[in-house]
Amino acid sequence: MSRKAVVLLSGGLDSATALAMARDEGFECYTLSFDYGQRHRAELLASERVSAAHGAAAHKVVKLDLRTIGGSALTDDAIDVPEEETQGIPVTYVPARNTVFLSIALGWAEVLGAQDIFVGVNAVDYSGYPDCRPAYIDAFERMANLATKAGVEGNKLSIRAPLMDMTKAEIVERGTELGVDYALTVSCYQADEAGAACGRCDSCRLRAEGFAQAGLADPTVYA
């Protein structure tokens, strides 16, 4: 019988690769996406496509409204998405986003009897978000095992971040080996309704550099 895993799936390049890696390990995958008021809603359709392509056992979209607190270019239309490299933590950081997402994933994992949660965070070629670092993932895993029935009964929960130490090029190469169709994914912070990318934001830049460094064709559709 396959082990179950909950996989956080944004619809972008990294999370699609994390899903493929979970499947390659033999997990029965339950994919979880969030409609949180993000500017780039085309990623929700992308997450459905990616989930179906990789044979997920179920795909769930949880609706949240992080626009009610704002504080990010992704959840507040009054804050522009930067189109040049910025110093420090960029305005595309969404306050506490990964903590909120992982907490809901943790709840679903308990319901499913899954002991593994996969998340596509990366601390090499990334935007500098504090909730994408190894120390954060380790701390959340400790909390998860303290705060849940599963954890206190000895069914250890693991937060799996298989991309953490990989460059974007390495992620693209690994995903390609595992059959990920990156044409299904959307990474752009301000993609249009059809999923066409701006080609200028931080996420677009990192994605394009990854394909270029890997020597692979970039299937991204640009506006």
UniProtKB/TrEMBL annotation:
<dbReference type="InterPro" id="IPR014729">
    <property type="entry name" value="Rossmann-like_a/b/a_fold"/>
</dbReference>
<comment type="pathway">
    <text>Purine metabolism; 7-cyano-7-deazaguanine biosynthesis.</text>
</comment>
<keyword id="KW-0436">Ligase</keyword>
<comment type="function">
    <text>Catalyzes the ATP-dependent conversion of 7-carboxy-7-deazaguanine (CDG) to 7-cyano-7-deazaguanine (preQ(0)).</text>
</comment>
<comment type="similarity">
    <text>Belongs to the QueC family.</text>
</comment>
<dbReference type="Pfam" id="PF06508">
    <property type="entry name" value="QueC"/>
</dbReference>
<protein>
    <recommendedName>
        <fullName>7-cyano-7-deazaguanine synthase</fullName>
        <ecNumber>6.3.4.20</ecNumber>
    </recommendedName>
</protein>
<keyword id="KW-0067">ATP-binding</keyword>
<keyword id="KW-0547">Nucleotide-binding</keyword>
<dbReference type="InterPro" id="IPR018317">
    <property type="entry name" value="QueC"/>
</dbReference>
<keyword id="KW-0671">Queuosine biosynthesis</keyword>
<keyword id="KW-0479">Metal-binding</keyword>
<keyword id="KW-0862">Zinc</keyword>
<feature type="binding site">
    <location>
        <position position="188"/>
    </location>
    <ligand>
        <name>Zn(2+)</name>
    </ligand>
</feature>
<feature type="binding site">
    <location>
        <position position="198"/>
    </location>
    <ligand>
        <name>Zn(2+)</name>
    </ligand>
</feature>
<feature type="binding site">
    <location>
        <position position="201"/>
    </location>
    <ligand>
        <name>Zn(2+)</name>
    </ligand>
</feature>
<feature type="binding site">
    <location>
        <begin position="9"/>
        <end position="19"/>
    </location>
    <ligand>
        <name>ATP</name>
    </ligand>
</feature>
<feature type="binding site">
    <location>
        <position position="204"/>
    </location>
    <ligand>
        <name>Zn(2+)</name>
    </ligand>
</feature>
